[in-house]
Amino acid sequence: MQQETQTERLDRLRAKARRLPLTPGVYLMHDRTGKIIYIGKAKALKNRVTQYFGSDTGHTEKVRQMVRRVEDFEYILCDSEFEALLLESSLIKQHTPKYNILLKDDKGYHYIKISDDPWPRITAEKQKTDDGVWIGPYHSGYIVRQSVDEAVKVFRLPQCNRSFATKSKPCLNYHIGLCSAPCAGKISHEDYLECVRSAEAFIRTGGAQEGGTQELRARMERAAERLEFELAARLRDRISAIEKIAQRQKVLASTYETQDVVAMAQSGELACFEVFLFRGAKLQDREEFLIDGVGDKPEARAAFLQGYYTAGREIPPRILLDGEAADRTLLERYFSETAGRRVELIVPQRGEQLRLAEMCRSNAAEHLASHTRQSGRETAALDELADLLGLAKTPSYIEAYDISNTAGQENVAAMTVFRDGKPLRAAYKKFKIKSFSGQDDFRSMAEVLDRRLNELEAGNDPWFSVTPDLILLDGGKGQLSAVLPVLEHHGVSIPVFGMVKDSHHKTRAIAASGGDIAIKSTRRAYTLVATIQEETHRCAIGYHRARAGKKGLETGLTEIPGVGVTRARLLLKHFKTLRALSDATPEELALVPGIPQPTAKQIYAHFHPDAEAPGGEEASN
After folding, report:
1. CA 45, chain centre distance (Å)
2. Does residue 405 sit in the same domain as residue 536?
3. How far is CA 56 from CA 224, 266, 332, 495, in A?
4. Inside any domain, residue 56
5. What are the pLDDT digits (tens) for 188-214?
6. Do 133 and 224 fall within a single domain?
7. What DSSP character marks residue 264?
8. Quick check: is 620 in a domain?
9. Do 563 and 479 share a structural domain?
10. What integer is the mean pLDDT of 358-366?
11. Which pLDDT value is given to residue 553?
C-alpha cells in the first residue's frame, strides 16, 4: 500500500473536520500508533478542529509539531460547554497526553538541618539523613528556604563552606554585618553555639511573627542592667533584624485569609507561571512552572489553571489573576463544584489586590529571565505592554517607524527593531521616500510600510524576512489610518499602534483604532515605549541630517566648473568626506570614474586657490 503524503494526510483530516457538527464536545488527537497526544474541548467542534489543519500561520511551534504527528482524531459530543470542560479534565488526567499542559503534584517533603559539626550550620534540605538535628517535615520548600535565610541573617551565621579549624580573613558578609566571622575568630565557640541554639528556637517558634521579640527585649534590658553592654548591643541588633523581617512579611500579607495569586510572564513561546499561596492572610508558599509552546495568553492561563488545580491541589475560595483567562465563568463553576463551595476567579483593577498580582508577575518575570537572556525588568515591561494593548501574546520582536524631513525636503524614514526589549541595531533600516515630493507624513509612512512588507514577501533580506510581533508608528490616528490599509492589502495580521507625544515631545499615549490608550500608569511599559520612540526618532533625524548635509556638499561642489550633480555624488561616494576630497591630488581625483583630468585640475584648484598645480603650472579657476 502506497504511503500517504503529508499533503494527503492534511487534506483527509481537514475533510473529516469539516464534517463535524457545530456543537460542544471534546476531541482527541491520535498519532500513527493510536496513542492520544492531545485532548481539547470546543464550544463548536467543527470550527475549533478545522483550525488545526488549515494554515499554520497563527500556530505556535508546539502546535505545529503536534499537528505533524496527528494521524487521526475522534470526538465526543456533549450537551454543553461545561460538560465538555468536565469531560476534558477527566480524560486529560486519565491519558496524560504529551501536548497538554500537565502539572503533577510531585512535591516531596522539605527539612531544615542543623549539622552536628563542632561549628554547626543551618541548611535547607530535601532528603533526610541520620546525622544532625532535623526540623520538619514541611510541604513548602519556599517556607524552608525563607526560614533558613531569615535565621542565618538574624543570628549572623555563616553561609559559606569555609573550615573554621584555622583562622583566615573574614569575607564581605562580615563587613556588611551578615556574619559573625568564626573563620577569623571574631566570635567565641561558646557564643557561636548560643547563636545556633537561638536560631533553632527562632525557626521552631516562628520568631519573626508578632510577639517574637518580647523575650529578646527582656534579655536585652537585663543585660543592660548588669552593664553587659556588648551582649545588650547584640540582642538589640537581633531585635532590629527580626522587626525588619516582620515588616517584609507584612508587605506580602493579604486582606483575605485564603487565596492564591496566579501570574504569568512570557518571552516568545516560553512562559513562566508563578503561584503565590496565601493561608492565614500570609504568604505560605510559592511555586514556579516553565511552560513552552505558549501562544494566546488567556488560553494559556485557562489551560494552566485547569492543569494546576486538577492535580490534587487545594482550591482556595479566591484565585487572583494578573489578566483575563479564557472560559473564566466555566472555570469558576468547575472549581466551585470540585471544591464544594464557591470559588471566584478575579482580575483586580486597583488597590492591594492589584499590587499582589503585579508582584506575582514580577517574580514570574525574574524566574523566566533566569532561563533567557532577558532581564526580569524587560520581561515584565513586555508583558505589561501586551496586557495594555490587548495582545494575544507578549511581543518579542518589535519594529518602530518614524519620518523626518525639513519642509518636505530630504524626506526619509527610519525603522528600528527591539528584540526581547533590547535594541537590535543590526536589523535597523533606513528609507528615502521615493513615491512623491513634499511633506506628507501619512503617505510617507504608508510607502515605508508597503516597501517593508514587499521585502517580507520577497524574503531576500534576512532581517526583512522576520515577521514582527508588533509595529509601533511615531504618530497618532493619522499615521495609523494610513498604514492599516497597507497591511490589509498585503494580507498580513500584525498589531499596529501609534506612539503619541505631548507638547513637550514626550511619550503621552498609545494610539489605537478605538482611541488613545493612557500609558503612564504602567511604569515599565511606559519606559519601554518611550525608549523605543526616542531611539527611532534619533535614527530618523540622524539619517535626515546626514542626507541634508550631503545635499549641501553636493550643492557646494556643483559650483566648480565641470562638476554637476552626478560628478559631485561620484566624488563624495569615492572620498567619503570633504576633507579627504580636498586633500586629494589631481592625479587621485582623475582616478575617480567619470572625472576627466581637466575637471580634476579644476577641483584641485578650487580647494587650493593659492597653490601651484603639480608639475610647475599655476593653478587657475
Report:
1. 34
2. yes
3. 76, 21, 32, 18
4. yes
5. 888 888 888 888 877 776 654 545 567
6. yes
7. E
8. no
9. no
10. 87
11. 56
Can you name the residues that pair with 496 across neighbouring β-strands? 471
Do 402 and 413 form a contact (C-beta atoms < 8 A)? yes
Inform me whether the pLDDT recorded for 82 exceeds 60. yes
Give the DSSP per-residue string, 449-516: HHHHHHHHHH--STTTTSPPSEEEEESSHHHHHHHHHHHHHHT----EEEEEE-TTS-EEEEEETTEE
Element (H, E) at 346: strand 344-346
CA pair distance 172, 151, nearest whole angstrom: 19
CA distance 585 to 262: 73
What is the structure's pLDDT at 248?
Answer: 55
If you ran DSSP here, which 8-state letter would residue 613 be given?
P
For residue 618, tell me if it sits in a domain.
no
DSSP state of 182: G
Same domain, 514 and 591: no
- Kindly state whether residue 104 falls inside one of the protein's structural domains: no
Q: Are residues 517 and 599 in the same domain?
A: no
Q: Report the alpha-carbon distance of residue 447 to residue 432 in Å, rounded.
A: 10
Q: Are 402 and 537 in contact (CB under 8 A)?
A: yes
**Contact indicator for 104, 92 with CB cutoff of 8 Å:** no
d(CA 611, CA 371): 67
CB 110 within 8 A of CB 126: yes
How many helices (H) and strands (E) would you count in the chain? Answer: 20, 19
CA distance 298 to 130: 48
Specify the CATH number for the domain of residue 478: 3.30.420.340
Using an 8 Å Cβ cutoff, are 357 and 261 in contact?
Answer: yes
Cis check: omega of the bond before 137, within 30 degrees of 0:
yes
Mean pLDDT of the chain: 83
User: What are 264's strand-pairing partners?
Assistant: 273
Count Cα neighbours of 413 within 13 Å in the Cβ-side half-sphere: 27
Contacts (Cβ under 8 Å, ≥6 apart) of 260? 275, 276, 277, 278, 316, 318, 319, 320
Residues with Cβ within 8 Å of residue 409, at least 6 apart in sequence: 548, 551
Domain region containing 427 = 397-548
Asked if 345 contacts 328 with a C-beta cutoff of 8 angstroms, the reply is yes
Q: What is the pLDDT of residue 181?
A: 84
Cell of 422: 533590547
Rounded mean pLDDT, 521-535: 86
> What is the pLDDT averaged over residues 126-133?
83
Query: How far apart, in whole angstroms, are the C-alpha atoms of residue 354 and residue 146?
Result: 24
| Residues 6+ positions from 408 with CB-CB distance below 8 Å | 437, 438, 439, 440
